[in-house]
TrEMBL record:
Keyword match Transcription regulation: yes
One Gene Ontology molecular-function label: transcription cis-regulatory region binding
A Pfam family recorded for this sequence: TetR_C_11
Gene3D superfamilies, A to Z: Homeodomain-like, Tetracycline Repressor, domain 2
Organism of provenance: Streptomyces aquilus
DNA-binding region ranges: 38-57
Protein name as it appears in the record: TetR/AcrR family transcriptional regulator
Amino acid sequence: MSAEPGTVRPGGRTARVRAAVLRAAGDVLAEHGFAHLDLADVARRAEVGKTTVYRRWGSVTGLVADLLADMAEQSLPREETGTVLGDLRANARLVQRTLADPRQGALFRAVIAAATCDERTAHALRRFYEIRVAEWAPCVEQGVARGELPPGTDAGEVVRAVSAPLYYALLTTGTPPAPAAADRAARAAFAAAVAGVYATP
């Protein structure tokens, strides 16, 4: 994605325009879903010219891809507690808080729904989770090094096992997961990892 000619100015106008447009796009997704995301409406909400939005993002899917990239960049960094279980619980609680947030939870539901029928959105969503899993994988790797988990444990699989039940609960019940569900997901993933479920033979 290249910036529109003339938007790179002192004071970071390009960054301000991107932030305003992505915020507006996120609002529309959270309020109305992917089907109602329109570049002209986003430009109006962001108070920027339609030409700017069309030139920079080109399409709704291009805008959603950039929104997901921005969300990955803005996500909180990994928390280190000193134990694998503590780290996995911190990860689970971060996911739970995100999904329980009225705006963020609705936004994720909209993007996940869109990803089922749009390949570019699906690719952007996979990339988002690749970044987040890579951010948290070291907590598992450190646990292996400390002897808390078996050698050969697949760090990415353990991290995904933590968040999977939380997303599943949201998508199948429509109800955001509670903190207790986050703790349960972390304990389950940890127990499975200790038992060698995620270790490479």
